[in-house]
């Protein structure tokens, strides 16, 4: 999403109550301009994305605050804080994930998601790309889905069997694909309002290509999961037959 | 006084012109989704008619803003 739309969305979220007189009115020629409609749609979508981000961020902050409330002492030192922070992740995430959890919140989310995706054998983020804002959005999205799945099913991912993890990977894939397909549809609809070859049109085209690429990556990854399931079934049958003999 | 409609552009006392992209009517109130092209600025406001004067009052209730934005974005996406 263009940064000017993000900025407008943030302004809209911070809007204050203010009364203003309408000093002039004019009829447009039947329809509002395409540019105005595109701005309206883009700012609206950026605003809703902002809202979703805030909810995920708030949920994460609340989880941290709850953990701190249970484990922190008022006189705690910086070193103790750092140790408690590490403890928090040890309590909540797998050892592989903890190894990677370092640095800023961007790194925290990005690496956490990479680790989760790796754990689930759902390698959506296969590219070695910078942690740009799009990737952060994806990471937060996946993080939210993962957290919701864990909370709903009370699964301990660090100790769950491969079968359980694959099952969860399938759920994660399904919800991720739904989101990507929605995003693709939105971008395709937005394209209808844009002037061909304008900068916004080209940017939107790039967005469509990126989403399509992610869907393909996810499809490929889920094929890997599917193959693994077939192998597991085969191994299970072999083991059963071995027992009978 | 004629109410504001979707097919017009209004100039506010800050001298900025806004297109009325959508109107959402709820609980006997009319909420306007206004777009200023020059600054890619969007505001959500309630239309208020007092005698011969029309004013708009921008909303500061974030939940109401979310509700209106969601409705408007869905309508625009359908077109």
List the helices and strands and how they pair.
The complex is a heterodimer of chains A (245) and B (79).
Chain A: H1 3-13, E1 18-27, H2 34-71, H3 78-92, H4 95-100, H5 105-119, H6 133-153, H7 162-191, H8 199-244
Chain B: E1 8-12, E2 17-26, E3 29-36, E4 41-50, E5 53-58, H1 62-78
Antiparallel strand pairs in B: 1-2, 2-3, 3-4, 4-5
Description:
The complex is a heterodimer of chains A (245) and B (79). Chain A is mostly helical and 245 residues long. Chain A has one domain (34-244). In chain A, α1 packs across α2 (34-71) and α7 (162-191) runs antiparallel to α8 (199-244). The N and C termini of chain A lie far apart (62 Å). Chain A contains eight helices and one strand. Mean pLDDT of chain A is 65; it is low at 97-113, 115-133 and 155-159. Chain A is flat, with a radius of gyration of 23 Å. By secondary structure, chain B is of the alpha+beta class. Chain B has one domain. Chain B has one helix and five strands; from the N terminus they run βββββα. The mean pLDDT of chain B is 91. The A-B interface holds A 4-5, 8-9, 11-13, 15-28, 30-33, 35-37, 39-45, 47-48, 51, 186, 189 and B 4, 6-15, 17, 19-22, 33, 35, 37, 39-44, 48, 53-60, 62, 65-66, 69-70, 72-73, 76-77, 79. β1 of chain A pairs antiparallel with β1 (8-12) of chain B.
Count of the domains of chain A? 1
- Class of secondary structure makeup of chain A: mainly alpha
User: Helix segment count of chain A?
Assistant: 8
Total strand segments of chain A:
1
Helix content of chain B: 10-25%
Instruction: Work out the helicity level of chain A.
Output: over 70%
Low-confidence stretches of chain B: none
**Percent in strands of chain A:** under 5%
Strand order of the largest sheet of chain B: 1-2-3-4-5
Oligomer: heterodimer
The secondary-structure element order of chain B is EEEEEH
Ends distance of chain B:
30 Å
* H/E series of chain A: HEHHHHHHH
Query: What best-fitting shape of chain B do the alpha-carbon axes yield?
Result: globular
Give a short account of the largest sheet of chain B: 5 strands, antiparallel
Shape designation of chain A? flat
- Major β-sheet of chain A, in short? none
Structure class of chain B: alpha+beta
């Amino acid at each position: 999403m263009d940064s000017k739309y993000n900025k407008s969305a943030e302004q809209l979220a911070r809007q204050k109550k203010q009364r203003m007189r309408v000093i002039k009115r004019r009829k447009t020629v039947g329809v509002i301009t395409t540019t105005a409609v595109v701005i309206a749609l883009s700012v609206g979508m950026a605003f809703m994305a902002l809202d979703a981000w805030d909810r995920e961020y708030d949920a994460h902050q609340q989880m941290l605050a709850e953990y701190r409330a249970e484990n922190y002492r008022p006189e705690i030192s910086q070193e103790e804080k750092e140790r408690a922070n590490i403890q928090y992740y040890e309590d909540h995430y797998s050892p592989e994930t903890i190894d990677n959890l370092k640095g800023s919140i961007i790194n925290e989310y990005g690496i956490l998601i990479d680790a989760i995706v790796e754990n689930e054998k759902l390698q959506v983020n296969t590219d070695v790309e910078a942690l740009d804002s799009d990737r952060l959005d994806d990471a937060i999205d996946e993080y939210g889905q993962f957290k919701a799945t864990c909370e709903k099913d009370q699964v301990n991912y660090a100790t769950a069997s491969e079968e359980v993890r694959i099952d969860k990977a399938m759920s994660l894939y399904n919800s991720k694909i739904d989101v990507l397909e929605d995003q693709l549809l939105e971008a395709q609809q937005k394209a209808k309002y844009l002037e061909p070859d304008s900068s916004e049109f080209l940017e939107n085209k790039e967005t469509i290509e990126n989403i399509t690429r992610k869907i393909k990556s996810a499809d490929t990854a889920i094929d890997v999961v599917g193959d693994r399931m077939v192998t597991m079934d085969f191994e299970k049958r072999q083991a059963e037959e071995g027992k009978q003999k | 006084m004629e109410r504001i409609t979707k097919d017009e552009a209004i100039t506010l006392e800050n001298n900025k012109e806004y297109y009325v992209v959508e109107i959402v009517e709820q609980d006997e109130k009319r909420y306007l989704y206004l777009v200023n092209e020059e600054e890619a600025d969007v505001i959500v406001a309630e239309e208020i008619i007092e005698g011969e004067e029309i004013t708009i009052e921008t909303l500061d209730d974030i939940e109401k803003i979310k509700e209106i934005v969601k409705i408007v974005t869905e309508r625009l996406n359908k077109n």
